Amino acid sequence: MGRGILHCAASVHRKELVGGVMAESKIPAAVNTAGALIKWVTGRLDSSDVYFGHGTDNSRDEAGALVYHVMQLDHHAGNRDYGIRASPKNLAEIQALLDTRIGKRIPMPYLLHEAWFAGRSFYVDQRALIPRSPLAELIVAGFEPWLASKDAGSALELGTGSGCIAVACALALPHMKIVATDISEPALEVARVNIDRYDLSARIQLVKADMFAGLSGHFDLIVSNPPYVPAAASEDLPAEYGHEPPVALYSGPDGLDSARRILQDARKHLNAKGLLVLEVGEQRERLEAAYPRLPFTWPELDHGGRGIAVITAEDLSLSGGALVAGAKDD
Ligand SMILES: C[S@@+](CC[C@H](N)C(=O)[O-])C[C@H]1O[C@@H](n2cnc3c(N)ncnc32)[C@H](O)[C@@H]1O
Fold first, then answer.
1. DSSP tally for the chain: helices H, then strands E
2. Taking Cα atoms as reference points, which of 271, 292, 293, 171 lies closest to residue 221?
């Protein structure tokens, strides 16, 4: 689901409010260009106790997302538009969104109804997890060198949420047809919005399913960012996570319930030369300990994040015992 989720409590930016009131909580009149607003919003975020971990990992990027979104500036133009003046309506909107962000600890993408993934904009709301998976890096690279992408024509995504992974896969691999599933009907409604936005309904089929139940067929690629936070961790996570669907975050006592189900049945749904790409984030060591005979590959990620396991159908075909979590070598 996301980067460093279990480390987040330690990295929360905390600064006390003076007398319970934020000294400079209103945008000053002199602060009216995009660049000045980003600087001012950054300072205000820094002096609050918000947590960054839902698509951005720092106050400045989040300030940029807010100001550029409201002023409808081009994210790809860098700081070219910093001199553009905000309208009174823009200023009022930035003020209101920032107050809600800080006051209610709602992640910024839910307030803007926009998240960025693999360089693309996605619609989001609280029905689905905010896109932030490090899988984006592998998707943009067409899963090379693990997937013979020229020959890979079919994929199954388990737990599609907003649909960001399925959409990014379809855009990176234009010949691929994708079945994207989720157990949550509300999440599938969000995925539908994004599939329509990118005009991909001919290539991405949405299916409501509990993991592999009721699914048929064989795929060249199975990809999943399933829930993998241990249930008990919910009490320690920053307030922002409380706005996301619990079904998208938590997965049993050790966080691996979903991963175990995927590993158990993936082989039956993969073609002989197929590939499973499974994100488990901070649970990497637990997964390796639970499946000591499965030869997972863990790609190095240049853009941050960790815990993406890659394994071929051939390796999943190892003796049945290897797929029993906790099975030891002879
Ligand atoms: C960590 S979120 C990932 C969402 C999206 N793929 C992403 O990367 O942003 C996990 C998703 O798996 C779904 N999910 C949880 N349990 C499931 C199950 N048993 N079968 C199918 N989907 C499930 C959740 O509803 C959620 O959308």
1. 12, 8
2. 271
Q: Is residue 136 within 6 Å of ligand 1 at its C-beta?
A: no
How many Cβ atoms sit within 10 Å of the Cβ of residue 102? 18
Ligand 1 center to 188 CA (angstroms)? 10
Nearest to 25 by CA among 104, 100, 106: 100
197-222 pLDDT per residue, tens: 999 999 999 999 999 999 999 999 99
- 247 CB under 6 A from ligand 1? yes
Residue 284 and residue 77: Cα distance in Å, rounded?
37
**pLDDT score of 139 more than 70:** yes
> Using a 6 Å cutoff on CB, does residue 162 contact ligand 1?
yes
Ligand 1 atom with least separation from CA of 131: 9
Q: Which atom of ligand 1 is nearest to the CA of 226?
A: 10
Q: Mean pLDDT across the stretch 281-309?
A: 95
> Which residue's CA is the closest to the ligand 1 atom numbered 12?
159
State the closest ligand 1 atom to the C-alpha of 160, by its place in the atom list counted from 1: 6
Q: Is the CB of 158 under 6 A from ligand 1?
A: yes
pLDDT of residue 318: 74
Over the stretch 93-115, which tens digit does the pLDDT of each residue have? 999 999 999 999 999 999 999 99
Q: How close is the Cα of 191 to the center of ligand 1, in Å?
A: 11
Residue holding tokens 């189900």?
261
Q: What is the pLDDT of residues 63-82, one digit of tens each?
A: 999 999 999 999 888 788 89
**What DSSP string runs through 178-242?**
EEEEES-HHHHHHHHHHHHHTT-TTTEEEEE-STTTT--S-EEEEEE----B-GGGGGTS-GGGG
**Residue 297 pLDDT > 90, yes or no?**
yes
Distance from first CA to last CA of the chain, Å, rounded? 34
Coil vs helix vs strand at 272: strand
Structural domains of the chain sorted by starting position, each given as residue range(s) with its CATH number in brackets: 5-109 (no CATH), 115-323 (3.40.50.150)
What spacing in Å lies between the alpha carbon of 250 and ligand 1's midpoint? 10
